[in-house]
């Protein structure tokens, strides 16, 4: 029942592809896409492109996670840090950091580094905003009890603040992971000689739409699996709280 | 606090300016230089044309995506049969970067603005849909019960209880969507366009016009910031009762 709509859409697609009303270029049939996808999985060179995209996305994400949790918790627990950094983050939140990409190309070179740097920057925002929000709303009674029982500042941070913030941090991760994929794919589409985004543009320019859609399927699958991995990690680490909503 | 804050930013800018005087690479301009270039660009028509072309893509895309996102999200949140039919498809495709559909959209809808508007609409749809959906789901049951108890009909409950309760979430989704619409607009223009700020920055990059590069960067930043302010202003006016985070 749940995936009726998906199946219907796929059926309409296949019917459109087979009807011959449109060129194969516009609606490649599902079988040819599936064939190209299988070929994609069977070719080590192509899988290597997926790996390139993946390590760019994960590299930028990991850096953003480390820096973002640090800055976020700092902003949540220190009035001074919040006062100084909050306008910086909320002011530039809606600014597309992607516009910095040309500058990054000059600064970090045209290779992976400029892309990783941009992924880092774009992922930093949701993680910082969510974790500062979480660290600010730690239950005051818990903090008082910890202090009352003689916990030092470090202990309070480690045993109270971080666990209480963890669900928010993961909410930030959940937003940041698709962002990382978006940025990697975009930057590879704009300027790159490797990665999945490049493969999309390359197959399009060689007028192989079936091949292009197979890469799109691969990107979609990768995005989906990364999201699932975050959810899985969250459920293992934060076993005391169930995930009900996407944001916070 | 305000003074410390201003001092912090001014010292950051001053540091940048000092570094620039000491000699930075040609691709890093000093703040004063960027402002001078920007003011100069404001005097010519070029910047306005490109900014208008960008907005003509991102705003309709944002409006379409937000409209359908809110509409279908509210529907999926309230009607169970629609939820079971529609939501799984949305949640499965949510983590997929929508920009990869741009090439196929270009084939279907042409290379012009329509494909870009539609890809922006597609990207903007998701955050609003998900927020509207969860906004409806998070309506306190006790409010609905009270309304029922006081004899409200289905329509009245939706209009007077569910919608106001979901509205803050919808606005939160709109803020995410707006930021996303600028990202996707910029990406689509960088990949393929003859106008717009994304195109301008590509031209500037490939002709090593660093002044132009920073001018378009600053223009995008200002547009994004202004759009975000507008959404927040609208939220404050429309949802005056709701306490909002900074």
Describe the overall structure:
The complex is a heterodimer of chains A (248) and B (246). Chain A has one domain: MetI-like (MetI-like fold, Orthogonal Bundle). Chain A contains 10 helices and no strands. Chain A has 248 residues and is mainly alpha-helical. The mean pLDDT of chain A is 87. In chain A, helix 3 packs parallel to helix 6 (112-136), helix 5 (101-108) crosses helix 6 and helix 8 (153-190) packs antiparallel against helix 10 (209-237). Helix content of chain A is 79%, strand content 0%. Chain B starts with a helix and ends in an 8-residue tail after the last helix. Chain B has helices spanning 2-23, 31-42, 45-78, 80-93, 102-109, 113-137, 141-149, 154-191, 197-206, 210-238. Chain B is globular, with a radius of gyration of 22 Å. Chain B has one domain: Orthogonal Bundle (MetI-like fold), CATH 1.10.3720.10. In chain B, helix 3 (45-78) packs across helix 9. Chain B is mostly helical and 246 residues long. Chain B is built from 10 helices and no strands. The interface between A and B is large, with 60 and 63 residues.
Topology at a glance:
The complex is a heterodimer of chains A (248) and B (246).
Chain A (H helix, E strand, L loop, with lengths): L3 H16 L10 H13 L1 H34 L1 H13 L9 H8 L3 H25 L3 H9 L4 H38 L5 H10 L3 H29 L11
Helix pairs in contact in A: 2-10, 3-4, 3-6, 3-8, 5-6, 6-8, 7-8, 8-9, 8-10, 9-10
Chain B lengths: L1 H22 L7 H12 L2 H34 L1 H14 L8 H8 L3 H25 L3 H9 L4 H38 L5 H10 L3 H29 L8
């Amino acid at each position: 029942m749940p995936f009726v709509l998906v199946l219907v859409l796929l059926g309409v697609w296949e019917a459109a592809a087979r009807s011959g009303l449109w060129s194969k270029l516009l609606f490649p049939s599902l079988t040819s896409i599936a064939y190209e996808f299988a070929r994609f999985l069977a070719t080590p060179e192509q899988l290597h492109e997926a790996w390139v995209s993946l390590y760019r996305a994960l590299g930028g994400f990991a850096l953003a996670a480390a820096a973002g949790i640090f800055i976020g918790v700092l902003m949540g627990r220190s009035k001074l840090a919040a006062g100084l950094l909050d306008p910086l983050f909320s002011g530039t939140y809606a600014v597309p950091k992607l516009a910095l990409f040309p500058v990054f190309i000059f600064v970090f070179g045209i290779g992976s580094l400029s892309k990783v740097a941009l992924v880092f920057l774009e992922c930093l925002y949701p993680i910082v905003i969510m974790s500062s929000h979480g660290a600010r709303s730690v239950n005051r009674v818990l903090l008082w009890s910890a202090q009352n029982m003689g916990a030092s500042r470090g202990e309070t941070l480690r045993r109270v603040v971080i666990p209480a913030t963890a669900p928010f941090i993961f909410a930030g991760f959940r937003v940041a992971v698709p962002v990382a994929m978006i940025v990697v794919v975009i930057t590879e589409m704009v300027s790159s000689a490797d990665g999945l985004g490049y493969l999309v543009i390359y197959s399009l320019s060689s007028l192989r739409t079936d091949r292009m859609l197979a890469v799109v399927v691969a990107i979609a699958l990768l995005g989906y699996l990364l999201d699932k991995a975050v959810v899985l990690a969250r459920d293992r680490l934060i076993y005391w709280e169930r995930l009900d909503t996407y944001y916070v | 606090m305000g003074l410390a804050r201003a001092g912090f930013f001014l010292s950051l800018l001053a540091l940048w300016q000092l570094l620039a005087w000491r000699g930075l690479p040609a691709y890093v301009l000093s703040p004063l230089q960027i402002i001078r270039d920007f003011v100069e660009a404001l005097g010519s028509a070029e910047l306005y044309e490109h900014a208008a072309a960008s907005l003509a893509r991102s705003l309709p895309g944002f409006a379409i995506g937000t409209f359908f996102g809110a509409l279908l999200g509210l529907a999926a949140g309230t009607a169970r049969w629609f939820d079971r039919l529609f939501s799984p498809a949305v949640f499965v495709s949510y983590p997929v970067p929508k920009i990869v559909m741009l090439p196929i959209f270009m084939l279907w809808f042409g290379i012009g603005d329509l494909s870009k508007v539609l890809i922006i609409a597609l990207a903007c749809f998701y955050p609003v849909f998900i927020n509207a959906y969860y906004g409806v789901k998070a309506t306190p049951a006790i409010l609905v019960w009270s309304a029922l108890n006081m004899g409200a009909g289905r329509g009245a409950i939706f209009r007077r209880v569910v919608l106001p309760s979901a509205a803050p979430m919808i606005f939160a989704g709109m803020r995410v969507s707006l930021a996303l619409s600028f990202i996707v607009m910029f990406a689509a223009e960088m990949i393929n366009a003859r106008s717009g700020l994304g195109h301008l920055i590509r031209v500037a990059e490939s002709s090593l016009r660093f002044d132009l590069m920073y001018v378009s960067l600053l223009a995008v930043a200002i547009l994004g910031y202004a759009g975000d302010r507008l959404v927040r202003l609208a939220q404050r006016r429309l949802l005056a009762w709701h306490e909002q985070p900074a």
